[in-house]
Amino acid sequence: MKEFTHIDEDGAVRMVDVTDKAATDRRAVAEGRIVMNRDTYERITDTRVKKGNVLETARIAGVMAAKRTSEAIPMCHPLFITGARVDFYPEPENHAFRIEAEVRVKGETGVEMEALHAVSVAALTVYDMCKAYDKGMTIEGIRLMAKSGGKSGVYQREGA
């Protein structure tokens, strides 16, 4: 059986060769959170940010990030994404938004990095668009929630 590793026989780093792996339906879900002050949260929810609709811009940025993950993460395979979504869930009591990304592919390797990258870039986009109001925003808890497909099977984070 072929070993899938980033290290070749000489100890050098290389992209994993997935040539012999079967293409399967793969899905990954990631989440994160951006926390801000009350005024910034209200500006976003009332669409009063001077740069435009923050959440829609961040949604597009997250989807685009999923599609271009291999350009940002060394040794990450370029994938033909068959589906990607980024959603925002308001948390008014915390002045925060939970960000969730789901990415799908039919391929030889997983989409965990694409989902994580989508959440990260969506959160950074919110920060960028609102930093004039609140430089103290925090991005936190970016993590894989679920994945399916491929040899390693199904993963579901406990409590998710």
TrEMBL record:
One of its GO terms (molecular function) is cyclic pyranopterin monophosphate synthase activity. GO terms for biological process: Mo-molybdopterin cofactor biosynthetic process. Pathway: Cofactor biosynthesis; molybdopterin biosynthesis. It comes from the Bacteria. Its EC number is 4.6.1.17. Pfam families: MoaC. Keywords: Lyase, Molybdenum cofactor biosynthesis. The keyword Cell membrane does not apply. Residues 15-150 form the Molybdopterin cofactor biosynthesis C (MoaC) domain. The keyword 4Fe-4S does not apply. Substrate binds at residues 75-77, 113-114. It catalyses: (8S)-3',8-cyclo-7,8-dihydroguanosine 5'-triphosphate = cyclic pyranopterin phosphate + diphosphate. The active site is at 128. Belongs to the MoaC family. Catalyzes the conversion of (8S)-3',8-cyclo-7,8-dihydroguanosine 5'-triphosphate to cyclic pyranopterin monophosphate (cPMP). Homohexamer; trimer of dimers. This is Cyclic pyranopterin monophosphate synthase.
